[in-house]
Amino acid sequence: MDTIKKKAMRFDTEMRRRIIVSVTNDLVTDQRVHRSCSALYDAGYDVTLVGRKLRDSGPVERVYRTVRMRLLFNKKAVFYAEYNIRLFFRLLFSCADAYYANDTDTLPACYYAALIRRMPLFFDAHEMFPEVPELVGRPRVKRFWMRIEDRIFPRINRKGRAAVTVCQSIADIYRERYGLNMAVVRNVPMFYAESHDDMTDGLLDKLPQGKHILLYQGAVNIGRGIEWIMDAMPYLDDCHFVVAGAGDEYNLLKQRAECEDLRDKVTFLGRVAPEKLHSLTKHASLGMSLLENRGLNYYYSLPNRLADFVQAGVPVLATDFPEIRRVVEGYGIGTLVPPVVFDIERLQSEPPDPKLLAKTITDTLVFWQSMPEVEKKNRFDKAAKDLSWENDKKVLLNSVDTIFHR
Q: Which of 29, 265, 287, 375 is the most exposed place for a label (fewest CB within 10 A)?
């Protein structure tokens, strides 16, 4: 009987369409890609996710296969060159039925391997890659990535190929620029069933009691407005600012908090596991999502943390950018603040007045404290139902399915 079951399972695996999904990160914290791969796996695809392994990369346990390449270079142009060359040859000699590229930095290898082998190709643009903050002020590097998009994007809109992106604004730009039709798969979390279980695992013990928690969660990178909130904290005696996440600016900002004697005002938690983070988020009084206008990528972004705050029933304070406004005003789940002016030549922005920002935070907290619980619950229940992965994964699966109808 066991032999029959094993043969049946092997037959089922052989009948599944095999998709190789590619990213340039180490897979550990990329929740969007994990959700996409899980949705494909549950829909019957045989999924292999390819990324890279760093020295400090943690373990990865997934229901689908994962491959992490150890590279000689981990920064700048040589990294992207080595990664795409290695990925190209891996794809060229792999057993696969389709290639799935996440972002423009994996697209060259996937596109040319698919072209040579005449294989279906799927492209998932998490952002406008040439507009990422790291390329602001680096025109030559930006032009290089734009040339890649200029060459490949017009050729994606063909049979056996399809593309999605994270918001309608980016989809509209690429349709106008390249004639590329992209479905929208938002960067939203899975729906969390209401639970009263506390899974913070001691995180709350690190925070002062009786204070309003202002929570930032996500990558601690440049242009995320974290330092603006730190500047406002001396004027917010009844609040405590919590930063949950890691990134390029993490050590610098943590050191700054210590040097400016903000240790009683700001807590840096580092990376937090998703289930612990969701449990922590429910204890927050206000979710923070302030961004600098560092290029179109930030301007048209719809940060995943907004949907995470919605799922936890936490109002937000966010920058008034188009996609963010569409959610915050559309569902009435927070307050928008005007964007600051970014000086492209000096690569810096004029920060908001700390006292004015502190007043905005205080006024927002008072507003939500005075709102009837029934009204608040109705707003967040509607937003949580709409902003959930259960809706957007249907768009993803339908889009992937089209590449096999050649």
A: 375
Q: Are residues 290 and 308 in the same domain?
A: yes
The rounded average pLDDT for each run of 10 residues, N- to C-terminus, in the chain (406 residues) is 44 74 91 94 97 88 95 88 97 96 97 97 94 80 94 94 95 96 92 60 80 94 92 96 92 92 92 83 95 85 91 96 94 94 64 94 97 96 92 96 86
Domain count, the chain: 2
Strand partners, 379: none
Cβ–Cβ < 8 Å for 292, 223: yes
Residues 6+ apart with CB under 8 A from 186: 166, 167, 302, 307, 387, 392
Query: pTM (2 decimals)?
Result: 0.84
Of 201, 233, 195, the residue nearest 214 (C-alpha): 233
Residue 306 has φ and ψ, to the nearest 5°, of -60, -45
380 and 396 in a common domain = no
For residue 287, what are the β-bridge partners? 215, 316
Q: Are residues 35 and 66 in the same domain?
A: yes
Structure confidence at residue 4 (pLDDT) = 45
Provide the residue range defining the domain that includes 162.
2-188+390-402
Long-range pairs of 341-349 with CB within 8 A, sequence gap ≥ 24: 341/293, 342/292, 342/293, 342/294, 344/136, 344/137, 347/136, 347/137, 349/292, 349/293
DSSP characters over 171-207: HHHHHHHH----EE----PPPPPP------TTGGGGS
pLDDT for position 193: 59
Are 172 and 239 contained in the same domain?
Answer: no
Q: Are residues 230 and 115 in the same domain?
A: no
Q: Are 91 and 68 in contact (CB under 8 A)?
A: no
Q: For the domain that residue 226 is a member of, what is the CATH number?
A: 3.40.50.2000
Report yes or no: 301 and 323 within 8 Å, Cβ to Cβ. Answer: yes
Same domain? For 234 and 179 the reply is no
Asked if the structure places residue 198 within a domain, the reply is no
In-domain check, residue 347: yes
Residue 194 lies in a domain: no
Q: Looking at the domain assignment, is residue 196 inside a domain? A: no
Q: State the DSSP code for 343.
A: E
> Do residues 337 and 352 make contact, with C-beta atoms less than 8 angstroms apart?
yes
